[in-house]
UniProtKB/TrEMBL annotation:
It comes from Candidatus Thiomargarita nelsonii. This is Uncharacterized protein. It comes from the Bacteria. The lineage of its organism: Bacteria, Pseudomonadati, Pseudomonadota, Gammaproteobacteria, Thiotrichales.
Length: 380
């Protein structure tokens, strides 16, 4: 309507004073949680556990280019709060089914040129996704007709609420990150289905992961990665292969929000563990382990062998290769440092911590070891 004054509407979407308009602040959530804890006659620690869980799974959103207090996803917070109030316990699943539409849109984006690589980059944050500016809108016309390049994909991920502002680069570009574990789960599940399109394969992988949670034995899962998962990679993937590719592969298989708070590149006093799996406080009654995993990658040229030669070697022969030994030693040092820092945060009496080093030799073989505080490495 060319006669309407609405044609000159002012866009205030990114103004900092409106950053928390459609979300909750931590102080607002704390007040409600405190009331529920009192009504349910629970310990104050239960309230702190609830706040910690919601922060990990639901916090992390910023809708202003300026530095603002991060806000919580209101749909997810209300989902958690309603169940906590009714049942006096935390919901088993942290993801509200109302976000199923985001799964479908993420699936659409992953099928676009560069879509899969952008999703993987968002998950690894190396390097962080960045843009000079957001696309102005993602309406029907843009969805159907616009060029669907990097700007389109990242902007749509942002507008969907599964990317958030994360400051600026040294050159002033807008930087983005996955805001929390619920959003991260959407990315992980999308890549899981891309890499393992058969339901039977995904079911097998999940069963192996569940066994790992209970035993700490990674060998069956390593065998699966060699025989099934890594078969989706081809020679072109070798050119960009590194630790991040291996970490992403294991993350998609091991991710579980029912029992674990999982994080890749978890900050531990300015150091970053590749993958941490810390049991949810409400699930510690079950006999499962906590984990820190460190991933390393060796090119075939670094071990002086071709793919066929690597496949023929036994695990013991692979472990004896000097390049593999060096990677395991490097990983051991890092894991022991992470253990000290993690236990200082959670307390060594709370965690049932397993330290695991994983080394991939090309996409052909995977070896692993548990690391112990006495520096004695063993295979289990």
């Amino acid at each position: 309507d060319i006669t309407s004054a609405y044609n000159v509407a002012e866009d205030i979407y990114l103004e900092p004073e409106f950053n928390d308009l459609c979300g909750f602040l931590k102080s607002e959530i704390r007040a409600v949680v405190t009331q529920i804890v009192e009504e349910c006659k629970l310990s104050p620690q239960k309230g702190e556990d609830a706040l910690a869980l919601m922060q990990a799974f639901y916090d992390g959103y910023s809708f202003s280019e300026q530095e603002n207090e991060l806000i919580y996803n209101p749909t997810l917070v209300l989902y958690f709060i309603k169940r906590f109030q009714r049942q006096c316990q935390f919901p088993r699943q942290m993801l509200d089914n109302n976000l199923a539409i985001d799964r479908r849109k993420l699936s659409y984006l992953s099928g676009l040129p560069n879509g899969e690589s952008i999703i993987s980059q968002a998950l690894n944050e190396t390097p962080p996704l960045n843009l000079k500016r957001l696309a102005k809108s993602e309406g029907v016309d843009e969805m159907l007709n616009a060029a669907k390049g990097k700007t389109f994909i990242i902007s749509l991920l942002y507008y969907l609420g599964i990317l958030s502002f994360n400051g600026k680069t040294e050159f002033g570009k807008l930087r983005f990150k996955i805001p929390n574990l619920v959003a991260r789960q959407l990315y992980v599940e999308q890549l899981f289905e891309l890499f393992l399109p058969q339901e039977s394969e995904r079911s097998q992988a999940q069963l192996l992961a569940e066994d790992f949670y209970q035993t700490g034995d990674l060998q069956p899962l390593c065998d699966f990665m060699e025989q099934r998962y890594f078969r989706v990679f081809d020679n072109r993937d070798y050119t960009s292969a590194n630790e991040l590719v291996i970490k992403t592969a294991f993350l998609t298989v091991l991710f579980d929000d029912v029992f674990y708070v999982m994080d890749s590149e978890f900050p531990l006093e300015r150091r970053y563990a590749d993958l941490t799996m810390i049991m949810r406080p409400d699930q510690r009654k079950y006999p499962l382990y906590d984990f820190i995993l460190e991933f390393k990658y060796l090119k075939l040229s670094e071990v002086g062998l071709n793919g066929a030669e690597v496949r023929e070697k036994s695990i013991e022969e692979l472990m004896a290769l000097s390049a593999v030994e060096d990677k395991l030693a490097e990983s051991e040092k890092q894991l022991l440092d992470y253990q000290t820092r993690l236990e200082s945060k959670y307390g060594d009496s709370l965690l049932r911590l397993q330290l695991i080093s994983v080394v991939a030799v090309g996409f052909e073989r995977v070896v692993w070891q548990k690391v112990y505080l006495n520096h004695d490495l063993n295979i289990e």
